[in-house]
Amino acid sequence: MRQIHTSTTKVATKLAQIIIEMNGAHKSILWMISGGSSIPIAIAAAHTICGQGWHKNVQAYLVDDKLAPLADTGVNYQALVDGGFPLGNIPLKPIEYHGDVEKDAARYHRVLSQAISEADIVVGQFGIGAGYHTGGILPGSEAAREDVKLVVGYIKDDVTSITITPVFIRRMDVVFINSFGEGKRKMVAHFLGSDAIVEQEPTQVLKEAVSTVIASDVLPGLYQSA
Taking the domains of the chain in order of start, what are their residue ranges? Predict the structure, then answer.
């Protein structure tokens, strides 16, 4: 696992470089974006990719989103749109909500299955969340335990969420983790040293992609995954 000790701006540039290099090898890219602190980095990276003219083979999808009782598009999708994600150049697919969490999750499962089949490379962008959740995969949840489906949906505190599962993450070619701020120091250090099972600490599945890069401003050092 490679860790980059650098600024937020440079991290967005690094993510863009990873995607550009793959695109330069004439690969079609499926870019999975999570919410929270990943959003401004994704927006900056997308503008760099477009600015250098390497956007034509890139499609972006959401790792997860909170939907009901919101509108048809969730908070992560709307945050990317409001932040200026260049939709005219890089298609960004929302998770559709039609009022039935199981059917909506199954629909997104079909969408992503098709997207994976058409992509040469899958890049996932994630953060390290409280309790060591990532995306919408919460510790001890159905999503953390899932070992067949690519996508599940659930309702917690009256909010409907849909998320990819560890099954999908294990199929990714590159996992790019962005985790910033002094408050993340212990979390990043714990993540790097932990061998907890995925059900307890969903972030641990991020180590199981083909390649994993962690970009943080709180720990020095270089780590490269297998």
Answer: 2-216
